Every structure is written in structure tokens, then in C-alpha cells.
Amino acid sequence: MTVLKTSLRNFLAHKGRMALSAVAVLLSVGFVCGTLVFTDTVNATFDKLFATTSADVTVKPKDAGNGNNNDGAPPVTLPAATVEKIAAEPGVRNVFGVAASTSVTLVDPKTNKNIGPTSGAPTIASNWTVTPNAALKLTSGQAPKGPGQALLDADTANKAHLGIGDEVKVMSAFGTFTQKITGIATFQTTNPGAAMVFLDTPTAQRELLGKSGVFTSVDAYGDGSRTNDQLKSQAVAGLGGGYQVQTKAEAAAENKSSVGSFLNVLKDSMLGFAGIAVLVGIFLIVNTFSMLVAQRTREIGLMRAIGASRRQVNRSVLIEAVLLGVLGSALGVAGGIGIAMGLMQLMNGMGMHLDTSELTVKWSTPAVGGAVGILVTIVSAYLPARRAAKISPMAALRDAGSSQTTGKSTALRSVIGLVLTGAGAASLVAAGAAKAAATGSMFLAVGVLLTLIGFIVIGPLLAAGVVRVLGAVTLRPFGPIGRMAQRNALRNPRRTGATAAALMIGLALVSGLSVVGSSMVASASEQIDKSVGADFIISNDSGAFTPDAVKAVKSTQGLGHVTEYKAVPVTLSLADGKKAKQTLTATDPTYADDLRVPVVSGRVKDAYTTGGMTVGEAFAKDHGLKLGDTVGVAFPGGRTTDLKIAAVTSKDTTFEQGSMFVGLDTARKYVPSDLLPQDVMLFATAADHKNAQPAYDALKASVRDFPQVQVRNQADYKKLLQDQLGQLLNLVYGLVGLAIIVAVLGVVNTLALSVVERTREIGLMRAIGLSRRQLRRMIRLESVVIALFGAVIGLGLGMGWGTAAQKLLALQGLGTLAIPWSTIATVFVGAAVVGLLAALAPAFRASRMNVLGAIATD
């Protein structure tokens, strides 16, 4: 009990010094809990959506896949007679045929703009049916009853400022048609972000599926006399083969799995960055307790002199750590709920509608958060606690604040750090030299881990040298004040190394990712210049091109040629007796000029002139194939043929790696016209290569009525790649910023405690003439040089990581190393600014000290 009282008294006596450490725990725990609450809420919300909207039994075609035809393939359908067969089964109350497609684009005719979601969610068009558990409910107007009428979901209508009586243009895989909005429906559960438009059943079948009397699925509801499993068994027995039949639970589980895979990736990524913040927070807490123990040397010595045992002293410090962990964790759990609500609002801004009233906080979330916060503080305080327990009673006679480090321990630490760093560097070199991606990735992970730990361990050794160099370069203009700032940074290399290490981790990640990102963009740009011969690349946001869009492109004046690009699913019969489901890329012969694909043997052009095909290098190696071999190909519709391998394409390319090419004429010969997929890409060249701008302008004008169609020249395509990667990196930088914030708090805390530790020294300097302004400058310069030290080792380490990762990416065709020197320089200067800002509060406090009071401090 005495130990507890002493710990509580010390904790409250130093609550100001503990505050920043508590903030570090708060941020770390908050990010962990926020991630868990957010993903649990989204999972629970979607579980509720799937559980309440799934039919008792759902019937789909066996090869329905994911239910869309974004790959250009015709929709897989069921005959309308299926509805009647299921309705005739005993125990079935209601049956509804569904005619739906996700390969559609909604356009506002007044503005000719796409009004579908921009968050990656689909636009879904379907026939309107009133099922017992419909996801939407008609809230105004009336349901579509015939051609030309449509019902729109309320969220899309509000976003596009459309209402009853307005028109909406629907672009499907089978053409474009305009409908008048006759009703608005509101989601009864969560809107997953999709845009929904509903038509009457005959119109949906004709315009979305291309034929009458078919459905994409059938939903059946029982009357309660039979279980869902019994209804499923009846359906399977009555329908025979060729169908996929699911119960309500199975359909909900499948939908949940598709959403859960994305959420799990998001969850793991966010928890990974939270882990980085936790690691950085450990350095802050270690520094805090180390300095507090050093400042309480006399106090601890007196405790030992009056009978306190080593165990009691150790326990006293650890109890303070537990108190810090409990307080920080409690605040972190509350902060995590706030973070989760912020993430939900962010998702709402992207089109999803998550209700914060349905926030899901499982008991495991605060348990995990509390465990993280308390364990982090206990682990961080363990070494300072051991150090405190070793203080002898005679230390009470020494000056408070002394911190002794033996030369033996420093030398041993340096040796261990150098060994770890050397082993890590060797692993990074091995990763760069690896011939297989799996082996290289393993070496890269080991190298990153070992070099990180090694640099942390040898931080004090590096501080002694690097800070001197930085001080000579950056602090010399400040004269004696600069020299004193440098000496203060060098006074305790272990403390300086630990403070800088926290900043080092965040900056190493930033520089490493910058190198990888810049290298990927540079490699892709080089590949475009080297491989792409087409002047224009035309893509479609909704997946497949409509026939009228293809016609508009082909009718453009000033084009030399237009290449169609289709994805044809096939089954290959190989010489080794195996069968493999693959996708053949069926194109016009001009594609061999539009994209110059490197080959191991043969020529891609020969696949078009001889009616053969190409295979990728890896596929050929796996199945023992070579130039001239024949492969059996089963096309959609059941027709089969043998195709001769005309070329084996190289794996050393960024584009079309592993693709199998076949002539479009071959695909048309063996695939029935109603099963032939539509184009998913188009390529075009200008008739006048030297002046392609007029053709570029004409092509953009030709597709103006198709807002889902994007025309890009090579410069546009390079910018697209750069922008997409830039958005991803900015997101990652934002998450890494959490660790950097914690690191900045560490600098502030170290300086604040250092000011307290040097109270008498500061008073003496002020007494002999150091002005307040000079004192503030000295502390600011000390902070800047520590921050720059962290930046130098962090940026250097990160560039090493990034270079090794780029060598590994070269196996995927990304062979250009690009160091983003402007980014590196910006981060380096930013580190100096961070150091300056971190010192403002400690410097101000130091300058406000009473001189006589400071000198009299014991």
C-alpha cells in the first residue's frame, strides 16, 4: 500500500511531464480502437443488410460469376419458366424474377454527366419488384408500369438534383435509352454506395439483358411450412443441373465474404500503421521515464537509504507506468470512437450512408485498447524501472539528475547494433538480387526489420558523429549559442538517439515509399514510351463498351485505325493432360503495333496471320509449352479447336504480362455472335502521327455523348498512373503522419524534461549574461539538430529500403530506379521546421524561469 501511495503521489506530482506520454498512448490506442469500431460497425451494418434483404432461396445460373458483365461477356440468364417451376414447389409462397445488370451508366440528359457513384460502388439497374424484405421502399410517386418509366433511389436523386418528372438516360451494354422518373425509393437499411434505377420487367429484360423472357436470378420466399434447406433441396431436385441454389444464410454469407475481404485488408492496413505509432510511442515513454528516474536519483537514493528494497522501487516506477497506461487507454478508447465516427462521415461523403446511431462497440475493443496501452507503457518503463532499482543509497549524496552509462554497455550496444545493421543490409542486397518474387520479398522483410532495429540500437553511436557534422554545417552561423545547442544534443547520446529514432521511423517509411512510388511511375512511363505505339487509349468506366460507343469511335475523322479489345473466357486442354480456365485477349491484328509486347520466342503478329495464339512465359514454363505446340481451346458456346502457339511473350514487361493473344477473327469464328463479349478497351492511332492533336480533339468530340468513355493520349495515360499512385501515397503518408505526430510529441517531451533537468544550469547561464532570447534560440537549435539527425538517418534508411524494393519490382517489369530528390529535400526541410515548432513551448518555459529560483534548485 505504501508503494502504491508513493507511486500515485509521484504520478500526480509529475502529471505535467506525463501529459505528452499520455497523449502518445491516447493516439496509439485511439487508432487501434477506431479501426476496430469502424470495421465492426461496417461489418454489422452489411450483415444486417444482407440478412434482411436476402431471399429464403436464391437461384442463379451456374456460371453467373459475380453477377455483372463488366468484362464485356453477355449476361448469363435463366429462362422465365424457372419462376414457374419454383412457384409450383410445395411450401413456396412468393417467387420473383430479377433482371439486373451492373454494367450500366446513369446520365443526366440536361448536363450529360454521369450521376453514378464515384467511390467505386456499382450502378445497378433492375426490374422493380416488391419483395417481403426489399432493400428500398417506394416513398414518392409510383413504380414504373411500362416503357419509358423509371424509379430512382433517393440518394442518387438528391445528389443529382433530380425529381419526379425529370428524365434520366440509361446506357447499358445493349444501347442507350431515356426514361422519365415516375417514383423515388428510399433505402430501408444501409445504402452501400450504389446508384439504383428500376424499370418495368419487360423493359429491363430487353434493354439490360438483350432479350425477353429471361432473368438473371430468381428469389423465392417460403410460407413457413418448410425450412430454407428443404426449399433448396426441392429447387435443386426440380431444376436439375446448371443452377446455383443458395439459402438465405448461404447468400448472406457469400455477400458478407465479398465485402469482408476488402474490409479485412483495410483493417489490417490501418492496424499496421497503428502499430507503427505504438512503436514510436514506446520511444517517447522510455525517454520520459528514463529522464524522470534520472531527475529523481536523490529521491530514490533516500528511499533506498530508509529501507525501500529494489523490488519496491521497481514496482513503484511500474505502477506509475500502469497509471499512465490506464489513463491513456481510457482516453484512447473514447478517442477511438470519435475516430470511427469520423471515418464513417468520410465514407458517407464518398456515397455510402452509415448511421452513427448503429455504432458497434464490442467488448473486445476496449479490452484490446486497454491491453495495448497498458502493455506498451509497462514494456517502455521496464528498463528505466530496473535502472531505478539499481540506484544505491549512496546516490543520495550525488547531484540529482546524473545519468551514468558505462563504457562497457555502450560498446556492447554498438557492436550488437552494427551486427544487426550489417545483417539487415546483407538481406536488402539479397532481396535486390533475388530471381523470384517470393524469395526477394522474404529477404526484403527481414532486411527492413533488421536495419530498423540496428539503427535504433546504434542510435547513440550515430548521434555522436552525425550531430557533430550537422552542428558544424547548420549551427556554425549562430556562434556560441549554436555550439552550446550542439553540446546539449551530444550531452546524452542515448537520449538523443532514442528521441531521433522515433522521428526516424516515420521518415524512413515516407522516403522508402516515395522511392518505390517514383520508381513505379518512372518505370511505367518508360514502358509507355517504349511499348505503346497507339496514339490514343480509350477506356470505359462502366466496363464494356456499348455498340453505339464503338461506332462513334470508329466513325471519327482523322484516325488511322481503331483496334477492338475483347476478353474471351476459354478452357485450355494442355499436353500434360491438365485443363486450365484462362482468358484470351481477342484483338484486331493492329494491336501488335499498338502495343509492342516483348517475346521470348516467335512474333505476336504471327498469332493473327496464322490463326494461332500466344502464351505467357510463366504459363509456358509451368505447362512445358514451347513455340509451335498446339493447345486445345474450348470457347463459350461449346465450340472447340486446336490453336498453335505462335509466340511466347516475355514476363519482363509492365503491360500485358502473361496475357494470351488471339485474333478477333478467330474468336468470331468459334464464338456464337450472341455470346461474343463486347469490347472492354479500344486503341487508336492518328492518320497523321506527327500532328495527332486534331484527331485527339475529334475523338473527344465523338464520344461527348458517352460520359463513361475516357479518351487519353500517352501523356494523359502517364498522368493518370501518376495521379492514381499519388492518391494512394497521400493516403499512406496521412497514416504515417500519426507516427510522426507521436514522434514530435517525443521531441517536445524530451526538451521539456531536459529543461527541468537543467534548471540550475539555465539559471547560472542567465546569471552570467545569457538573455532570454538567446536561451530560447539555444533550445530551438538543439531541437532542430535532433530533428535533422532523425531526418538524416530516417531518409537514408528509407532510400535503402526503397531501392531494394525497386530491384524486387524489376521482376515485374518495373526496372527504373527513380529517387524523388525534391520530396527528400522537402521532408528534410520539413523536419527542421518540425524541430523548431516542437521547441517553442519548452523554450518559452525555460526563458520565463526566475533566475535566483533556478540557481537555488537542488
UniProtKB/TrEMBL annotation:
Topology class, membrane: Multi-pass membrane protein
Write the protein's name: FtsX-like permease family protein
Q: What is the lineage of its organism?
A: Bacteria, Bacillati, Actinomycetota, Actinomycetes, Kitasatosporales
Q: Which residues cross the membrane?
A: 270-294, 317-343, 363-385, 415-436, 442-475, 496-521, 731-756, 781-801, 821-841
Q: Mind telling me which InterPro entries this protein's record contains?
A: ABC3_permease_C (IPR003838), MacB_PCD (IPR025857), Macrolide_Exporter_MacB (IPR050250)
Question: Main subcellular localization, coarse class?
Answer: membrane
Alphabetic keyword roster: Cell membrane, Membrane, Transmembrane, Transmembrane helix
Q: Where is the MacB-like periplasmic core domain?
A: 19-211, 496-701
Keyword Transmembrane helix appears in the UniProt entry: yes
Q: Which family does it belong to?
A: Belongs to the ABC-4 integral membrane protein family.
Q: Name one Pfam family in it.
A: FtsX
Q: Where in the cell is it found?
A: Cell membrane
- Provide the ABC3 transporter permease C-terminal domain boundaries: 273-393, 735-851
Please, which domain of life does this record's source organism belong to?
A: Bacteria
